[in-house]
Amino acid sequence: MTVLQDVHEDHGATFTERGDRRVVDSYGRPDRTHRAVRNVVGVCEFGYGVLVVTGDDRVEFVDNAVSNRVPAADGQGCYALLLDPQGKITTDMYVYNAGERLLVFLPPSRTEAVAEDWGDKTFIQDVEIRVATDDFAVFGVHGPKATEKIASVLNNAASPEAPLSFVRGSMRDIGVTVVRADGLAGEEGFEVICAAESAEHVFDTLVNRGMNAAPFGYRVWNSLTLEAGTPLFESELEGRIPNVAGIRNALDFEKGCYVGQEVVSRVENRGRPSKRLVGLTAEAVPDAGAAVFAGDSAVGEVTRGIESPDREEPIALAFVEFEADSEDLTVRVDGQDVAAELVELPFVEGSDRSARLPAYESAE
Questions:
Q1: What is the pTM for the complete model shown?
Q2: Residue 111: helix, strand or coil by DSSP?
Q3: What CATH number was assigned to the domain covering residues 274-345?
C-alpha cells in the first residue's frame, strides 16, 4: 500500500499494483506530466520493499550474497543483483551502508523471499535481517532541475554529488536521507527517504515548497526509463543473465558472483552473449512479448513499448539475437507485421545517462 493514498487521491491519482504494494499509476495527462519532468522536475513515491540488516558481520554477509561490492563506508551505496545457481537474476537491489545497519531497497515482490532466504543463512554469523518496508517512505525527485529542487528544500546538508552516495539533513525540521540517484530516468535525480509517519509533510515539501515539482506515477516512470534505455527488473532483468541484459554497473568481476556461499560462473562469460537488449522504433506500439522478425526468421521479442512523448513515435525495448540488424526488420502488432528499425540507446538524451544503459564487451 502506498504510504499516502489519501493525499495521492486528492491530487487525482489512479492506482496500480507493484508486487503486493498499491502505487500511483497516474495523476492524469501522463504525456504532459512526462514532459514536465523531462523539462523541469517531478516527484514520485516509489514502492520499494525494504530490509534492515544489522550485526557485526552485516557487510561481509551481504557482500558474499550479491554481485557487487557492498561499500564498507557510511554514506555510500551500490546497485547489485542476486543470481540463481545458473547465473540468472532473481532480483536487483540497492544496498546502502548507514553506519550500524545496511538498508536494502528491492522490488516489493521479492522482499519476503530474500528476507527468508538470508535469514536461513545467518546462523553462523552475527547478522539479523528485518523486513522494514512499512517503516519508510521513499520519494524520487527527477528532472534537469532536480539538484536545484533539492537545494531549495534541504537543510543542514549539501546535495550529494556521487551516484548512490547520500547525506542526512532535514526538510521542515523532519529528518531525511537524500541519495544521489543513478540516472534511470535519463535526468538528474535523487531519492528522499523519511520515516513513514513523516511522509505527508515531506511529499508536500517536495511538490509545493521551494521550486515546485510535478507529482508523477509509475506510468510516467515507465515512459521516462524506456526513453532513457533503462532495463527494469520486472520487464527486462528477471530471469536473465546479466551479460544478456548488458548491465555492467551491478557486477564486480574481481569478486565473482555469489549465491549464498556458492560461487557460480561469472555470468556466462565476459564475451559476447547470444542476445542483447536494443531499442526499436516501429510503425505501431508493440505489446510486451511481441515477436521481432528479420525477414521470415524470429530473432527476438519486445519487453515493453510506448508512444514516446518526446520522440512522438512508437518506441520499444527488445531482446534480439546479437547479430540482428535493421535490414528487413519487423515486429508483430495485433497480428500484423509492421516495419521496425534498431536505434541506438538512449532514445532521448537528458541531463544524465542511466547507469544501466546496456553495454556489451567484444567477443575478443
A1: 0.93
A2: helix
A3: 2.40.30.110
